[in-house]
Amino acid sequence: MAAKRVGILTGGGDVPGLNSVIKSVVYRGSEIGCEITGIRRGWEGLTHVNLEEPASRLRYIQPLNRDNTRTIDRTGGTYLHSSRTNPSQMKNLPAFLRSEDFPSKPGKDGAPTYNMTKRVLANLEALRLDYLVAIGGDDTLSYAATLDQAGMRVIAIPKTMDNDVRNTEYCIGFSTAITRATEAIERQRTTVGSHERIGIFRIFGRDAGHTALYTAYVTSTRCCIPEYEFDLAKLIDLLMTDKRSTPSNYALVILSEGAQWKGYKIRETGEADAFGHKKKANLGEDFSDEVKKATGEETIVSDLTYDLRSGSPDFLDKMVASTFAGMAMECIERGQHGVMTAICSGCYAVEPIPDPALGPRKVDVGTMYNTERYRPNYASKRGLPIFLTRA
């Protein structure tokens, strides 16, 4: 194998299973003669590092071996840390690079953004890395595709509890998120029922409703997703019907953070991140207000967001993470790049890194969502892969 030096980084939000990828890359790498270098804090590690300054190098570059990764898979989070950094649209240059000339263009707010790809490539060359393993979701992998096209050999590994990366049916973190959401809803069901209220659960899913939909699938609840605008009065009526027909006189609904009812516009707050995303206001609270106005019923609003990505991975995420890591190293052995580890038709596969212009993978409303009942579609699953959809 020609390649001997491999970099690895994690970008965007953390999910359970990332450390299993890192450890497995290191262990497999040691077996095939690769030296593994960890890039800390995601893409920031390649835009902000000053390799001539020892303190900066220590902050952003970490050699990885069997000893320092031996136990990291026992916990969640990411051993290499993370950030939301987009090297192709940097608002602020590191202080030591402000005198350098980088291509720029106006951002959405009119202020210039800088493309630091040439700096990223220079740092990768200085580190003498032959390949880079990038673990991330839509945003992180969109830059991975850019970097591979710019000349760096990149292998991508998809992770996000939203499960919305294209070219794969599964992303690391999804199973643990659904498991956590299910457990939280089943626990809170007793309180919602005890007080005879309507339980409203807001769950991550800015652009795609996979997490809400699959949680609803296993908890037998109604759900609303970004892919389909719901009718406010109709949903409230359905929940009131559920409440009246339940012995404990309560009802539940799961709302993706990006869901909207007809005529409603989600409010966004704060400053946009490096990829142009602002935080969305809590739809659950706004929907609760509408329920109270229409019915006078009391509600309980629960925000199931960051807790779903915290803690240790479940079995499935550990298994997929370790398998994806092994597949990534096999790609390096074969000289492949510009590819992503994936699951397609229920089988492990290697696919092209998704085209960033296509955006996130959405729920197929026609087959997966019952738009009349605001529930998952449980029919016609024979012959489908385990995750009920094809990449």
Helical content (DSSP H or I, runs of 4+): 25-40%
Number of helices, where a helix is a run of at least 4 consecutive DSSP H or I residues = 12
Q: Could you say which structural class the secondary elements and strand pairing correspond to?
A: alpha/beta
Which regions contain 5 or more consecutive residues with pLDDT less than 50? Answer: none
Q: Which architecture name of the largest domain does CATH use?
A: 3-Layer(aba) Sandwich
SSE diagram, text form:
Blueprint: E1 5-10, H1 18-31, E2 35-39, H2 44-47, H3 54-60, E3 61-64, H4 66-69, E4 104-106, E5 112-114, H5 117-126, E6 131-136, H6 138-149, E7 154-158, H7 174-194, E8 198-203, H8 210-219, E9 222-224, H9 232-245, E10 251-256, E11 268-269, E12 279-280, H10 283-295, E13 299-304, H11 315-334, E14 339-344, E15 347-352, H12 365-368, E16 369-370, E17 375-376
Parallel strand pairs: 1-2, 1-6, 6-7, 7-14, 8-10, 8-13, 9-10
Antiparallel strand pairs: 2-3, 4-5, 11-12, 14-15, 16-17
